[in-house]
# Entry
Amino acid sequence: MASHEDAVEFLRLCTEAEGPSRAEALQDLNFRYGDQWPAEIINSRKLESRPALTINETDAYIRKIENQQRQQRPRMNPHPVGSRASIEVAKTLKGLCRHIEVNSDADNAYDLAFSFAITMGFGYFRLYTDYIRDDSFDQDIYIGQIENPFTVYFDPNSSLPDGSDSERCLVTDLMTKKQFRAQYKGAQDQGFRETGTGEMQNEWVTKEDIRLAEYMYISRVKAELVMLSDGTTLFGDSLPPEPILQQAGIVIKGTRPSFKRQVKWCKQTGFEILEEKVIPGRYIPVVPVYGVQVVLDGKRKRFGLVRFARDPQTMINFWQTAMTEQAAMMPKAKWLLAEGQDEGHENEFAQANTRAFPVLRYKTVDVDGKPAPPPQRIEPSQVDSAALANATIAGENLKRVLGVYDPQVKTDGNKSGKAIRGEAMQSEISNYNYFDNLTRSIKHGARIILGWTPTTYDVQRQMRIIGDDGKPSLVTVNERVPDEAGAITVRNDLTVAEYDVVMDTGPGMGTLRQEAVENLGQILGANKEL
# Structure
């Protein structure tokens, strides 16, 4: 088993490898939510009491992409693999996956991870098991959100877009010292002090909290793999006694050297390991959702939409502020009148720019008694047209960088629903790589679920499954049924066979029904006989 120092060294490795990338990501996150002026400029403007407006169009456009993702939910679809798997059990597993997502509010985890991915390049969700009730031994699989992705230190050597090749991962969290002392009696209440960019905020550091770390890693142990005459493969230490094999008429057909792959988990402080166990399955149960991932000069970089939206958004703020400043400094519109024309009405003309008088009275002659034309306003200079043009160009540049376009609206208003949807899909196509990355990650999450199913759902129990139409039903898994001869068969056996997963993408059942109704309405409207 690992020592507590392994986790500390791993965090240091992650900090060295990803420190600059995490710092950029933190800037992206702050920029999206309003910190959009360089520090030196905002400080100088405050000293001079000058405005610094933030017209945050970037967040509005990114929320538009997020909402498009919420309308396109990828769906897990297990498929049977090998002779021992069955289509019936695969359907049960599909309904079980939907139950797990609904039961754990997985949409929250997916949406949050996707939001971080398109904002700064990476987000995470995780899987775990827990008892269904305090008074039950039955467990369920849950999909949980990771609220702060900076608390996750993922394997820097992982290169696959779904993180399935990860060998190590560390996640930190806070616990109150009172709860810590009650749960881990005798343990040192000194927290996990090593930290990386973006994780430790000031409000996290309190006298009542202690910081803990969950460290997960892959362990490989050499073992002998045995093939039996019935096609079963087992490791040597799991082989039944020879008399049982002989009684069943099974013989060993062959052996080969191999290794056992185990996922190990431990919770620890910076000084000692508090808990440790072996997690079922083959994969680290923390799933990354990436934005754009590229290797430049031998360094892996990840970023989202905000990284290249900074410059046009900064220009929008600058030019909007410049125009506001210019407008605020413009003089009021003045009156041009001959001397003596306002005699007796001086207050009315003095307040003409601040009050709405129904009538302005004036004299038709000047002080010399000569006829004078009516008073006229002298219009002040307008906002600089160059500043207005630059602000418009900056706005268009922001749309191009983000890949979000406004649908073209025809003046006659004669446009079909299909055409409107096609125009709305322009930004979806521009940013489809982000949607696809989320689909890959959810697919990997489904693989983890399928790897955990044989050990989590290993006894006969009644469970809810959810169909494609969202309707629930109850099935009994691992149901032992005797036949006429007294032999036991198992229905919906989740403990054997292998299953893989493919993803169903596109509109959900409700959207497909709505589109079908619209199409039928058009057909019926075009042919009255129907």
Remarks:
- The chain has a mean pLDDT of 86.
- Residues 4-32 form the longest helix (29 residues).
- The chain has 13 helices and 19 strands.
